[in-house]
Task: inverse folding
């Protein structure tokens, strides 16, 4: 069995996070976006998805908040697809 927590690319250690890629920084950005509602299905997906370092790093490369939100919505749509 593979333990994802041991994968360095997904570690949550703040010492390994790139600038603007820590969980608190990414979640602050997410919560600043109008229409993001804590407790709904999208927010639940986002918190799990952005818990992985590689996804936070991708988030940080998307540019402005509008582009970040479009990318995250695409990931959510893919996740929900049968």
Result:
């Amino acid at each position: 069995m593979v333990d994802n927590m041991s994968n360095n690319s997904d570690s949550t250690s703040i010492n390994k996070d790139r600038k603007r890629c820590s969980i608190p920084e990414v979640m602050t950005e997410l919560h600043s976006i109008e229409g993001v509602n804590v407790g709904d299905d999208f927010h639940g997906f986002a918190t799990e998805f952005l818990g992985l370092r590689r996804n936070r790093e991708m988030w940080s490369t998307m540019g402005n908040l509008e582009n970040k939100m479009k990318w995250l919505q695409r990931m959510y749509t893919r996740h929900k697809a049968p």
In short: DSSP finds four helices and no strands in the chain. Residues 30 and 59 are 10 Å apart (CA to CA). Residues 1-9 have pLDDT under 50 and may be disordered. The helical segments are 23-31, 41-49, 53-61, 65-80.
